[in-house]
Amino acid sequence: MDLVRHSFHHQLLLFSLISLSYVSGTQFSLPRLGALRRTIRNKLDIESISSLPKDFKTFFYSQTLDHFNYKPESFTSFQQRYVINSKYWGGANTSSPILVYFGAEESLDYDLSGIGFLTDNAPRFKALLIYIEHRFYGKSIPCGSREAALRNASIRGYFTSAQAIADYAAIILHIKKTFFAKNSPVIVIGGSYGGMLAAWFRLKYPHVALGALASSAPILYFDELAPHVGYYAIVTKDFKETSESCYETIRKSWDEIDKVASKSNGLSILSMKFKTCEKLKRSFDLKDFLDSIYSEVAQYDHPPSYPLNIICRGIDGAPKGTDILGRIFAGVVAYMGNNSCYDMNEFNRPNDETYIGWRWQTCSEMVMPIGHENNDSMFPPSPFNLTKFIRKCKSLFGVRPRPHWVTTYYGGHDLKLILHRFASNIIFSNGLRDPYSSGGVLENISDSVVAVYTVNGSHCLDILPEKKSDPVWLIKQRKTEVGIIESWISKYYTDLIMFRDRTRVSS
User: Fold this and answer.
1) Signal peptide location in the record (predicted)?
2) Quick one: how far is CA 140 from the chain centroid?
3) Neighbours of 380 (CB within 10 A)
4) Is 492 helix (H, G, I), strand (E, B) or coil?
């Protein structure tokens, strides 16, 4: 009976997610965060993550479900995964640093293979490396299964960023105690949503982390701090700078899709033209699919492949005489590959853990008002509508989103004025071709809360593995970041010696 009930509720949750996507009308899917591009994650799936080097050791920490209350259920625990690489560590007796990577809205497995900043710099720092998985993702699930946790209204209430960074603090202190590393300085690192967590962690737990590298962290994309159209304005700019003709083709294609769809057999024509795996029930699903592709290639326009160039070469290189939608499809094939069919749910799979988990997070506290409104945009008008967003979230989870909570809890308004005196040792790194940089910190706040950006950079590029093909500007960005972290650690060691001497004198 329990198995039947579990299956029923699981199907109900998935049905609700599918329904929410279907009734979204003209509200396009919110662009995904994440340090790694979806196609990179898929590649890691195929190649299997079990082939990680033997230097990576997996552990589980008995984590408290609720760090902030003392109700009976607050003391419930779950097993939270973390991974340690001690190959390069200089040891506790040398107070060698600890580099900690904050997992975000996906399994930690992807980060172990896809994030390079820690392993690339571990020999230089003689650092102990730690990777911590975010609660409710990967293998760090309360209640035994993600479906059970998310369908339980009480349990999913503990699925918050504040609980997540408290998890990180508990694990870091546990590891420092286990390794007798009391005096080892900790630098926390994260990308995208994980970058936001890293910055917020430094503000909330300065006694645990000496500093933070927040890569592509759009901490200002909340509560009207950044323009709603900022994200898609940069996507448009990226395409326009890459190819004016590609930009124009995309801009004109939306009306063409509507024109074909209005015919009696229009959806069938579009389904055949774009080789959809299932017949389209509405033209919006095709538009949302294309919107997601254009967002992804702009956000993750990494060298040396530069996927935005790939899709525009496909569009511009279609045979002479090809109509607008034919050219658009040629771009899809160039980027996605020549497949037998194309799944319109490719970017919004209802059974994907990131899709399910991030749905909850955006429907509770991570409300990022992203929309299309710009006259110069290559996208059709689709402004973010908070009233509709709230209605959808209430229909799915029975909760009302809190669009002002992030700035209430972590701050954001008058950032420079407030953090100039209050904060220290945070690097906000960005690439200006990343659409999420529109919500990033792009100016130095103080001598030690600094913005490091590159004009040609893309999402989280600086924390990906180093390659021989890396352009000079990327190498320089990483070198600047490492130099800043080295200065933090050097000052810490000076302070450590000074306070040790004072302690000896006073005793």
Assistant:
1) 1-25
2) 18
3) 16
4) helix
Domain ranges of the chain: 38-224+408-506, 229-336
**Tokens coding 199:** 């910055």
CATH architecture of 38-224+408-506: 3-Layer(aba) Sandwich (3.40)
* CA dihedral sign, ordered 207, 211, 214, 218: positive
459 classed as catalytic: yes
- pLDDT of the residue at 22: 39
Measured CA to CA, the distance from residue 153 to residue 5 in angstroms comes to: 16
**Rg, C-alpha atoms of the chain:** 24
Of the residues 243, 288, 459, 462, only one is catalytic, namely 459
Q: Is 447 a catalytic residue?
A: no
189-200 per-position pLDDT tens digit = 999 999 999 999
pLDDT in tens, 139-160: 999 987 888 888 889 899 999 9
Q: Which of 288, 434, 462, 470 is catalytic?
A: 434
Question: Is the CATH number of domain 229-336 1.20.120.980?
Answer: yes
Helices first, then strands: H and E counts in the chain:
19, 8
Q: Give 31's contacts (C-beta < 8 A, 6+ positions apart).
A: 231, 292, 295, 296, 299, 370, 435, 436
Distance CA 496, CA 506 (A): 15
Which of the following is catalytic: 192, 253, 437, 458?
A: 192
pLDDT for 345-373, tens place per residue?
A: 999 887 788 888 999 999 999 999 999 98
